């Protein structure tokens, strides 16, 4: 098996928020992650685990209160954290693109959808406005919008929720990015629309040789749709493994707890178990080295003081960060 | 710094209104034709006007006209506005819709023109200036209180009060209004500045007080005649004090806003 | 132009009617019911004897029921009968019509200056919320809000006319020695330009500077504050984040935000314009400007109540027209508005 150079490399990424009442919250702590070209990776975590902040960090779209304190992000070998603003503008949309959770508010409400797609094309190298408009209609057709030529003249408020998400996907795909990030892209849509949107992302990624990063709280969805799953807890990456392996041979206590809290076919309410406790306050001064410490049933004094040890399987595909893995 | 300076200014203007005449160096109404149109000096800090009256003393005395007038207007409109707004917000329904519509139109209408019309009809007196000022400030209270009460009437503590057998009057007066008191307080302090502006504006165009009663707007209007002959001081002193007074009330409103709504304080 | 758009326009036109009816009721109550004897009140000019008052009573139908009185009143207004001014001896409607353009010219000039200065400042402050510049703008707005228009006007005259001689005499719209150009738009500055009369144009423009600057300073603080608020809201929205995420250039992102702030900004200008109609009264007095506000003040001082009543109705009509224009422009700026409801 040829080892491909990773498309995206994240090393020891740490990020903090300055809090309004003073002090700082450590939102991401030493996070490392690779995505290979054409790979579908899921980043799974509870709400507040820092997974969306991670996506925004990749695009350098964090707000003023966030500061990246350590680490590096490289895409196709290029250092993102030291790229100029102008260069970042080129990379966004063209190299890495994102689909946000709420399509209803993420589209410009008073611009025709065809023009919004044309705007993206014109921003990324298309010269002729006419050609951009024609390609926008093609993009709409590609994401499965019927009667695309007419729909291109519609405003977002004239479309249904599922249609809006299709338009968001068309916008994200417009400049043929190498990596497509879907940040809870189906949360808030109804179940059939969810499946439709996921199918569309999947199919487009394959057709365009794109890698995808699926950010979700839904472990079942991640397992179903992705090659590999990375689990994040309170800003720390706890485990990453091929999807099938993670489901059957999870080694981190948190991953195992997540699995028993995830309903699947054949599970009864009796064997569904909530994860005890809650994620620690990342603004606390006395955070344990392993942030799962307080909730963990395998904790020892070691976990409090010494950062969790990374163990990799022999082929390097299964990595767990724990002193006492299963 | 802001809290300190706004408190200081408030204290200054209160002292001015209470002790003004006592500390005024001259009788604000006394003519001294020999001293007419004197520029500012150690004797006459703000100079003298065409009749030789001390502008500083007149400006001080005017605080006793403007500040109580503004306060009376604000008290009147807040009392009526809060009652009407609370009733509308709590009861809802057709009355609420109609009052809401009238308030919307009123708020957008040139309110100064309404005030002019009211004073014209009711008669040119300070009492009617106060009434007119109160009327044009009413819609702001009604809208504010209506919205705040409507947002709260279904909340748990209101439901609890109702289940405990409290009457509607009790719930509005003792449960809801105390809960929105800080919001009303902010509105009142902002409103004081507007009321001073409105009172002095009406006086400037000749409505309200009659000469020789000192009033800031009338003093500026008086002084404006002498600007074109170079006697700037007759208008300058009262103008500065008037601006400072309005500024003080605005600052106090702003401070109150920061104190009572911590979310927007940053 | 499709059916829904036509119905939107028609519905908007209909919403103006209650405002006009409301203003009529207001003047009816204020001018005819509140005074002890409306006939004496309306005929309280010099040279009005008991016979005149009796005649006026009959003419006004004061012996009839209130609804009939109101009907008669509204009927007269509908026929353009606003009564006679005994100060000028003309029908009030004619006087007001002649003076209205001067007032509108002043308000428009002031609004234009306020927009040109205030909007960029508001936008710049919104781009860097919490910055030193933003704080300075906010302080300026608070200070500006505390400055009464008449104080500004009076000291602008002192400084620019008396001290520095930059501005012409603050006595009206145009030098009394010059003949006014033929009336086309009613705006002297535009009419003199249309007539090619450069001397008149220079004089009219020169005389507009100080009063419209005064009006502008009135409006500057609210323009700045509301522009900032509209832009902060637009810039914080999800679609701005997603347009950045798609790599759109900063200029286009700013344009997205501006377009979305459009409808709120148009509404703001409507509000401020109506606020300026009130401010006009004071500024016209300060600059001896021959507008409807000065006319109403003269009427007030001479107890010429037909003039005051006419003034209020004209302001209400202008206000209604401005609101209609605002509604239609908002529908144009935001495609969601015409199709909602």
From TrEMBL, chain A:
Q: Which GO terms describe its cellular component?
A: plasma membrane
The Swiss-Prot or TrEMBL record describes its family as follows: Belongs to the ABC transporter superfamily.
Q: Which UniProt keywords apply?
A: ATP-binding, Cell membrane, Membrane, Nucleotide-binding, Transport
Q: Which CDD domains match?
A: ABC_NikE_OppD_transporters
State the superkingdom: Bacteria
The UniProt entry lists membrane topology as: Peripheral membrane protein
- Taxonomic classification, please? Bacteria, Pseudomonadati, Pseudomonadota, Alphaproteobacteria, Acetobacterales
Supply the InterPro entries for this chain: AAA+_ATPase, ABC_Ni/Peptide_Import, ABC_transporter-like_ATP-bd, ABC_transporter-like_CS, Oligopep_ABC_C, P-loop_NTPase
Query: Which protein, by its recorded name, is this?
Result: ABC transporter ATP-binding protein
**A GO molecular-function term, please?**
ATP binding
* The UniProt record lists the keyword Cell membrane: yes
Which ranges carry the ABC transporter domain?
A: 10-259
Q: What's any GO biological process attached to this entry? A: peptide transport
Q: Where found? A: Cell inner membrane
Any Pfam family: ABC_tran
From TrEMBL, chain B:
According to its record, what are the GO cellular component terms? plasma membrane
Q: Which residues are listed as membrane-spanning?
A: 69-91, 103-123, 129-145, 183-209, 230-252
SUPFAM superfamilies assigned to the protein according to its UniProt record, in alphabetical order? MetI-like (SSF161098)
Q: What membrane topology is given?
A: Multi-pass membrane protein
Q: Which InterPro entries match?
A: BP-dependent_transpt_permease, MetI-like, MetI-like_sf
Principal location: membrane
Q: Where in the cell is it found?
A: Cell membrane
List the GO biological process terms: peptide transport; protein transport; transmembrane transport
Chain ranges of the ABC transmembrane type-1 domain: 63-253
Q: Which UniProt keywords apply?
A: Cell membrane, Membrane, Peptide transport, Protein transport, Signal, Transmembrane, Transmembrane helix, Transport
Please indicate if the UniProt record lists Hydrolase as a keyword: no
So which residues are the signal peptide here? 1-24
One Pfam family, please name it. Answer: BPD_transp_1
Q: Which family does it belong to?
A: Belongs to the binding-protein-dependent transport system permease family.
- What is this protein called in UniProt? ABC transporter permease
UniProtKB/TrEMBL annotation, chain C:
The GO cellular component terms are:
plasma membrane
The UniProt entry, under Gene3D superfamilies, shows: MetI-like
Q: Which UniProt keywords apply?
A: Cell membrane, Membrane, Transmembrane, Transmembrane helix, Transport
Domain ABC transmembrane type-1 as annotated: residue spans: 100-330
Record's bilayer topology term? Multi-pass membrane protein
A Pfam family the protein falls into: BPD_transp_1_N
Q: Which domain of life is it from?
A: Bacteria
List where the protein spans the membrane: 12-33, 106-127, 139-162, 261-283, 307-330
**Keyword match Membrane:** yes
Where is the protein situated, by its record's location annotation? Cell membrane
Task: Give GO MF terms, alphabetically.
Answer: dipeptide transmembrane transporter activity
Annotated InterPro entries: BPD_transp_1_N (IPR045621), MetI-like (IPR000515), MetI-like_sf (IPR035906)
User: Can you tell me which family this protein belongs to?
Assistant: Belongs to the binding-protein-dependent transport system permease family.
- The protein's name in its UniProt record: ABC transporter permease
According to the entry, what is the taxonomic lineage of the organism? Bacteria, Pseudomonadati, Pseudomonadota, Alphaproteobacteria, Acetobacterales
């Amino acid at each position: 098996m040829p080892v491909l150079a990773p498309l995206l490399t994240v090393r020891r990424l740490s990020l903090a928020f300055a809090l309004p009442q003073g002090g700082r919250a450590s939102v991401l702590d030493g996070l490392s992650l690779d995505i290979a070209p054409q790979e579908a990776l899921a980043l799974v975590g509870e709400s507040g685990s820092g997974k969306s902040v991670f996506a925004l960090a990749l695009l350098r779209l964090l707000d003023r209160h966030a500061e990246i304190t350590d680490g590096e992000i490289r895409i196709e070998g290029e250092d993102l954290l030291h790229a100029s603003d102008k260069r970042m503008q080129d990379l966004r949309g063209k190299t890495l693109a994102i689909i946000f959770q709420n399509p209803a508010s993420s589209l410009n409400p008073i611009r025709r959808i065809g023009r919004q797609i044309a705007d993206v094309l014109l921003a990324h190298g298309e010269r002729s406005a006419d050609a951009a408009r024609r390609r926008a209609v093609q993009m709409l057709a590609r994401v499965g919008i019927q009667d695309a030529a007419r729909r291109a003249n519609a405003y977002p408020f004239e479309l249904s929720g599922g249609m809006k998400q299709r338009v968001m996907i068309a916008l994200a795909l417009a400049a043929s990015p190498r990596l497509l990030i879907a940040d809870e892209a189906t949360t808030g849509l109804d179940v059939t629309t969810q499946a439709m949107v996921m199918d569309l992302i999947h199919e487009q990624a394959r057709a365009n040789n794109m890698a995808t990063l699926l950010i979700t709280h839904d472990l079942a969805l991640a397992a179903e749709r992705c090659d590999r799953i990375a689990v994040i807890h309170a800003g720390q990456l706890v485990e990453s493994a091929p999807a099938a392996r993670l489901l059957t041979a999870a080694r981190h206590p948190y991953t195992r707890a997540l699995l028993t809290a995830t309903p699947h076919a054949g599970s009864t309410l009796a064997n569904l178990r909530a994860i005890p406790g809650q994620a620690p306050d990342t603004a606390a001064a006395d955070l344990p080295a392993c942030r799962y410490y307080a909730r963990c049933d395998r904790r020892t004094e070691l976990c409090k003081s010494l950062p969790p040890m990374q163990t990799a399987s022999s082929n390097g595909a299964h990595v767990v960060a724990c002193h006492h893995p299963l | 710094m802001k809290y300190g300076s706004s408190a200081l200014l408030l204290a200054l203007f209160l002292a001015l209104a209470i002790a003004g005449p006592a500390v005024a160096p001259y009788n604000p109404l006394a003519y001294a034709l020999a001293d007419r149109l004197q520029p500012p000096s150690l004797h006459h800090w703000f100079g003298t006007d065409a009749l030789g009256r001390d502008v500083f003393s007149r400006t001080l005395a005017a605080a006793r006209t403007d500040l109580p007038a503004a306060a009376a207007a604000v008290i009147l409109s807040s009392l009526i506005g809060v009652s009407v707004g609370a009733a509308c917000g709590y009861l809802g329904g057709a009355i609420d819709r109609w009052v809401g519509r009238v308030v919307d139109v009123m708020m957008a209408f040139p309110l100064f023109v309404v005030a002019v019309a009211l004073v014209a009809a009711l008669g040119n007196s300070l009492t009617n200036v106060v009434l007119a000022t109160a009327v044009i400030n009413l819609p702001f209270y009604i809208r504010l209180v209506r919205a705040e009460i409507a947002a709260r009437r279904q909340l748990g503590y209101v439901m609890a009060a109702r289940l405990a057998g409290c009457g509607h009057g009790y719930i509005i007066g003792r449960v809801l209004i105390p809960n929105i008191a800080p919001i009303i307080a902010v509105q009142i302090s902002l409103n004081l500045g507007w009321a001073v502006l409105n009172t002095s504006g009406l006086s400037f165009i000749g409505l309200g007080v009659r000469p020789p009663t000192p009033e800031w707007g009338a003093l500026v209007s008086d002084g404006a005649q002498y600007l074109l002959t170079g006697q700037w001081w007759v208008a300058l002193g009262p103008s500065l004090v008037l601006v400072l007074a309005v500024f003080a009330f605005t600052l106090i409103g702003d401070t109150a806003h920061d104190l009572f709504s911590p979310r927007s304080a940053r | 132009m499709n059916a829904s758009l036509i119905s939107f326009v028609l519905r908007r036109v209909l919403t103006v009617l209650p405002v006009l009816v409301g203003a009529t009721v207001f003047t009816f109550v204020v001018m005819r019911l509140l005074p002890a004897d409306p006939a004496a009140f309306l005929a309280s000019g010099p040279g009005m004897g008991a016979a005149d008052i009796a005649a006026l009573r009959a003419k006004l139908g004061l012996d009839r029921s209130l609804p009939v009185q109101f009907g008669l009143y509204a009927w007269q207004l509908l026929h353009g009968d606003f009564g006679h001014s005994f100060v000028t001896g003309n029908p009030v409607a004619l006087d007001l019509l002649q003076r209205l353009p001067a007032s509108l010219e002043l308000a428009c000039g002031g609004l234009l200056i306020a927009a040109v200065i205030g909007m960029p400042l508001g936008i710049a402050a919104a781009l860097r919320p919490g910055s030193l510049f933003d704080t300075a703008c906010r302080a300026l707005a608070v200070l500006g809000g505390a400055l009464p228009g008449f104080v500004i006007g009076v000291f602008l005259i002192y400084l620019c006319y008396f001290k520095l001689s930059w501005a012409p005499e603050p006595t009206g719209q145009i030098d009394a020695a010059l003949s006014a150009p033929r009336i086309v738009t009613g705006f002297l500055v535009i009419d003199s330009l249309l007539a090619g009369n450069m001397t008149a144009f220079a004089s009219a423009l020169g005389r507009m500077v100080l009063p419209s600057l005064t009006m502008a300073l009135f409006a500057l603080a609210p323009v700045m504050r509301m522009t900032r608020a509209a832009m902060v809201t637009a810039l914080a929205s999800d679609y701005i984040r997603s347009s950045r995420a798609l790599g759109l250039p900063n200029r286009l992102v700013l344009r997205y935000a501006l377009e979305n702030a459009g409808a709120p900004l148009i509404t703001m200008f409507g509000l401020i314009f109506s606020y300026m109609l009130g401010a006009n009264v004071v500024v016209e007095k300060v600059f001896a400007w021959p507008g409807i506000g000065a006319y109403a003040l003269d009427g007030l001082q001479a107890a010429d109540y037909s003039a005051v009543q006419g003034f209020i109705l004209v302001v209400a009509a202008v206000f209604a027209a401005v609101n209609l224009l605002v509604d239609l422009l908002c529908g144009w700026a935001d495609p969601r508005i015409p199709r909602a409801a």
